[in-house]
What we know:
With 715 residues, the protein is an alpha/beta fold. The protein folds into 5 domains: 23-184, no CATH class; 190-254, no CATH class; 258-427, P-loop containing nucleotide triphosphate hydrolases (Rossmann fold), CATH 3.40.50; 433-497, Helicase, Ruva Protein, domain 3 (Orthogonal Bundle); 504-714, Methane Monooxygenase Hydroxylase, Chain G, domain 1 (Up-down Bundle), CATH 1.20.58.760. The protein is built from 26 helices and 13 strands. A hairpin with a 7-residue loop joins strand 10 (527-533) and strand 11. Helix 1 crosses helix 2 (56-70) and helix 2 packs across helix 4 (96-107). The radius of gyration is 35 Å and the shape is elongated.
Amino acid sequence: MKGPAKPRELGAKRRSRAIPRSGPDVVRHMLQRLQEQSAAEPGFLEFCEEPERFGPEVAGAAVLFGFALASREGLLQRLENAAPVVIVEVPHAEWIEPMRMALEACFGSAPTRPGIWRKDRPKLREGRRAIVVEAVAGRIHPVSKSDGGTAKAFREHRPLIGVLAGPHTGLPVDLLEACEERIVVGGLDPEGVEFVVDHVVGGIARRRLTAGVAAAVGPRDLRAAIHRARGAEGSIDRLAAMVERRLERCRAADGLRLQDLTGYGPAADWGLAAAADLSAYSRNRISWSACEPGVLLAGKPGTGKTSFARALACQAGVPLLAGSLAQWQSAGEAHLGTTLAAMRGFFETARKASPCVALIDELDSFGDRRHFSGHNRAYSVQVVNGLLECLDGAGGHAGVLLVGTTNHPDRIDPAILRSGRFDRCFTIPLPTISDLSAILRQHLGTDLADADLTDVARRALGGTGADCAAWVRRARGRARRADRMLALGDLLFEIDASAPSRGEAEDARLATHESGHAVVAHALGFELQAIVLHRSAEGGGSTSFRLPDRYATRANLLDLLAVYLAGRAAEVLVHGAASTGAAADLSDATAICRHMHCSWGLGSRIAVSPPASMPAKVAALVERDLRRASDAATCILVERRRCLDALASTLTLRRSLDSAEMEAILQQPVGSVGAGPAVPDDESTVGLSRRLKPGRGKVVSARRHADGGASTCRS
């Protein structure tokens, strides 16, 4: 019969166990080691005058290290059985002390429980346990106590772990030079917070923090919120409340995240996905090869391209670095050497700050090497080549998400836009009515909280996000100078004052013109999207419709000609004469008709000839087809005069109509109000005579000349 089991000696070697592989398994392993260390310490407590327990911040550090360690295959086994030299980089300085304590508890050789220990305490068997060294703030590598620990680890062939925050080391030189592995630890995520709560409290709350809140949790938050006495639910509620309040304060001071902005369309969806990937990369969850390398944002000035980059960085929780060719040229009076040095310095800074977002503003300022000429050609080519070298780089730009902005994407060298560089391009459109309403509400904050901003947004249509910020700022100044609260009239006054207004007669003509496009497009089966009267006198209006097919027949193109000439025909029908507002429509319609006869084989001949050298006979046929298309548009407008007048009247009042609003007006019964010109009944208009009822035609984009997509008639 065996005697009683011999008690395990404190610090004795643990039994061998299976090495965990997945992130959650490694985290459980780390927390188990932390718990075992706590269980091993009771024999020492009589030698501690003021014992304390490991706080939840230490458990949080163990969780962070566990998830990061899982991405380094074999490193856990080496830490337990070999003598690697490892540097652990924590998110910020507050994590250094908790991480040191967690690593000493899990891999170290001495009791790490906080407290005041007596000098006569017994020593543990150290074996090959790790020595953990933390960074010293402001250190410039002098000899210090931590150097003794480093030397001891080398002398006794023991694992050595250094803990630091950020690029400034503060670690011994010997440790830095011998480093074999550098582990960058990210912030917590919802699963990580659940691990901490379960370890400390002994249960998991039903509520789960959002990813954004969890990523902002720091060691002080864990220490103040998570306690066994509060339970899992109470701990999570307190933690969420603390962090959310801080995030609200930071958001007000530092700017908005991407999810808080509106009006970016597909670019916003891409940005949210890219921010999530960048955040996952910072936590070592995915490799950089799985992340988007860069994006080009194109759009008119003031549409929020730079704001997008700033919000993207906030969304991912990483810093934003901004640069431009003008900034780099100013570093040395545009001398080639100093310009390239400044450019390389920017990219090197971004690599050191990774993960981060690097903004290159006005990317079109580099130009296109195909179009360089003159004595500056060599200089400009070398600048573009320098940028391409930086974009690729010998060490790459892992962790650096590139964002380029431009007002003219067609002026950028194609090599800059190839895959792996700025291979994704999004055009930021002008804000819609709903976008403008949301943007104005964002800038107004608590002012005019109960006001409906829809009508204000209609008046602001054609404006940008930057315009909205300016209008709100000026409206507040107007109210402040009058010594009263901000009123809706102040905002309307600033919007109207920011651009020259049109007279009633001009507004009516413009509304008639755009309504003419919409009525004929609807009658011929085009899918209407929107009709807009822009607020400035120079802006005019626009009617957008969808073109459902890529390839067009002659009949389809005649349909399109009628739509483009319908605005001019409506002006003649209602106001008695055409105006110069139809110039753009005439130019587009003429270009389509010329291509029909000279390029596409859909006119009088199938031989291709340059439209510029069009024979006089063909020019006469183009004129004939355009006049017939105009007559056909007039015929449709005469039959739908009630719809034309109703749509123009509504558009004048509301400034913008979407597809559903137009459809409701254009469904009125067809009825003639007056006589109009007859539609010539010959082969050239067979595509028109078949469609005087709503349907779906198959047309071609006037803007793209036989490429499918969407088209817009502008006046």
